[in-house]
From TrEMBL, chains A, B:
InterPro entries, per database record: HTH_LacI, LacI/GalR-like_sensor, Lambda_DNA-bd_dom_sf, Peripla_BP_I
Domain HTH lacI-type positions: 10-64
UniProt name for this protein: LacI family DNA-binding transcriptional regulator
Gene3D superfamilies per the UniProt record, alphabetical: 3.40.50.2300, lambda repressor-like DNA-binding domains
PROSITE patterns according to UniProt: HTH_LACI_2
Length: 348, 348
DNA sequence: CGCCCTCCTGGGAGCGCTCTCGTAAACTGG
DNA sequence: CCAGTTTACGAGAGCGCTCCCAGGAGGGCG
């Protein structure tokens, strides 16, 4: 860690001189050391350590055209998403998997349309090997922006597209929202419930509509009085529940599209003297621990492997990067739907 | 945006050829255009647009030794911090200010000692111009790791140091925890309260100890029965409050070192039939909106400009970067303490 | 009208690395 | 023991950019 004059970092050249070999050999050793005599490898290693040599990433990138970095784009008109445990967990999964691939996470935070311009430039400028993005609302321009940058990209959650039709095929990783919802509703049916209501999420988010679709897969043609819409928040869930109780006082079960909404619903149900699960069985979605386990009774809900989804996003992206899917004629890898799992607790 | 052969990005050379000038001139135009005849500037601009030229950051970095990127290091044994609105806000402030400085945010997430090794290598490897870090616990090795990397760095929150003594001077940005606490307690005194208890945060976090110090600044030699320690969580605050009520049933005010703890305390107070603020006045710290405004009564608390602190961290760092404080003899800029403000709501 | 000074512009070196290619050395087998 | 392989290593080009320096054009002044 010493030996280098203060201020200047040692270069390959310096290491080569010290080890009495050529630059090329040092480079080979530093990058895996295959095809170099063990004795030489050792000599180079020693020199590297003595000088405290660390490769200059910029020089490397210049010739390899690989950056060892991936952009994670947070489009976030609502600041909320960042404090959402769901999102944090996904980022953590991404971060962990990137470490495995020796890549860094460059966080791009978009707060408005102007930022999209900036981000587009950044992506095009060749700073990163690829991009990971989260699509929130259907009318969000982000997917388009990223696609235009012609850089490998993977989405978290199935992106919706502004305008109908022309849905470009972009790889994404999503939980099996629809299947999970089906399982949740089937569970309620198996419990003997007949009047199963649904508190849906915002209609412009695919996760919400997919869950709604799963509900309808099982219940086919549900009574409109059994439907209410929330906004994925606790308060929204409470309001929706209140509406439902008016529209359909005879309901005996509720499937809420998120745990947060379920907890709001639970609050209202108890407020109106309905026992859970005796009078009304309740199922949430997400298995957001801090919520689902904290309620009384704890929430039966649909678990998704959030961190695993983060891992998958990175693996998918890395495959695209190494296969260079920006080449004309290259086909992008398919998307991945991760399984969900019904977690039975006390509420249903 | 067209005109370049698919796959290859146009280089400076290509733009120069197109505009009929030299590489050097194009470079000058791209970097501000001073010292170039307006007519030429225009010609180059046109060529840049026609070719869709974007500078190659790696090549640039190689010669300028500037990366246009800053590492943000999250040391986080407890995952919690990421979901903490406090932290999210600070990151947002950082992100915004970095945009102003045309720099990117590289997120480094450390989950354990092994990661420190990785991070140390990364920082030393010359990938970023500087580092922003958050010190959480006093026994955290992160400050040491960063300091050893000899890279400009600014801390969020006054870092504590493992072991006593030898406190290296490292610039940080922190709220005036002590002053804010003083103000909070003085407010309670002004209200005529005489038995003012304190729920402190963890003793190994400077933000907690500083607030405690502020409390003692005003109350000088407080009755030990008026002191309890929490862990900055709601549950911890509740537990501490319960203890306080046993130790000192005659207390007439509580200053909690965080809003979350205050809300826990509030719950216990009401549970035991104490009216807030009539019987017991309560003041929190942080002005974490989602908590302080949601309680009943809303919390009187000490506000800190969290996002502003993020901005300041970046500005401080950028100054260090441009002045190259790693040069021997350079003095690091001083730290900044941002003011706090008492926000009066219903609880005191 | 010539000289000097200023202002622009281009040539060229060089940042630190990878990678191709050529050659020397080591090995194989008949 | 030598021709033919295989393997190990070094020389050198070049990635795309910035920046120093030299030189040319033009303007001001004696």
């Amino acid at each position: 860690m010493s030996g280098s004059p203060a201020g200047t970092r040692p270069t390959l050249e310096a290491v080569a001189a010290r080890a009495g070999v050529s630059r090329a050999t040092v480079s080979r050793v530093v990058n895996g050391g295959s095809g170099v005599r063990p004795a030489l490898v050792e000599r180079v290693r020693v020199a590297v350590n003595e000088l405290g040599y660390v490769p200059n990433q910029a020089a490397r990138t210049l010739v390899t055209r690989r950056h060892g970095a991936v952009a994670v784009i947070i489009a976030e008109p609502e600041f909320r998403i960042f404090t959402d445990p769901f999102f944090a967990q996904q980022i953590r999964g991404i971060s962990r998997e990137l470490t495995v691939h020796d890549s860094q996470l460059v966080l791009l935070w978009a707060e408005g349309r102007d930022d999209y311009e900036r981000i587009s430039r950044y992506l095009t400028g060749g700073h990163v090997d690829g991009a990971l993005a989260f699509s929130v609302h259907n009318d969000d321009a982000l997917p388009t922006v990223i696609l235009r940058a012609r850089i490998p990209a993977v989405f978290g959650g199935r992106p919706g597209w502004p305008g109908a039709g022309r849905q470009p095929s972009v790889p994404y990783v999503d939980a099996d929202n629809r299947g999970g919802a089906r399982e949740a509703v089937r569970h309620l049916v198996a419990l003997g419930r007949r009047r199963i209501a649904h508190i849906a999420g915002p209609a412009d988010q695919t996760s919400a509509t997919d869950r709604f679709d799963g509900y309808r897969d099982v219940l086919l043609d549900p009574d409109p009085a059994l439907l209410a819409q929330g906004d994925f928040t606790e308060a929204g869930g409470a309001a929706a529940m209140a509406r439902l109780l008016e529209q359909a006082p005879d309901l005996d079960a509720v499937f809420a599209a998120s745990d947060l909404m379920a907890s709001g619903a639970l609050r209202v149900l108890r407020g109106q003297g309905r026992r859970v699960p005796e009078d009304v069985a309740l199922v949430g979605f997400d298995d957001m621990r801090s919520v689902a386990e904290a309620t009384d009774p704890p929430l039966t809900t649909v678990r998704q492997d959030i961190e695993g989804m983060g891992h998958l996003m990175v693996r998918l992206l890395m495959r695209m990067v190494t296969e260079d899917t920006t080449e004309p004629g290259a086909r992008t890898p398919g998307s991945v739907i991760t399984p969900t799992e019904l977690v039975r607790r006390g509420s249903a």
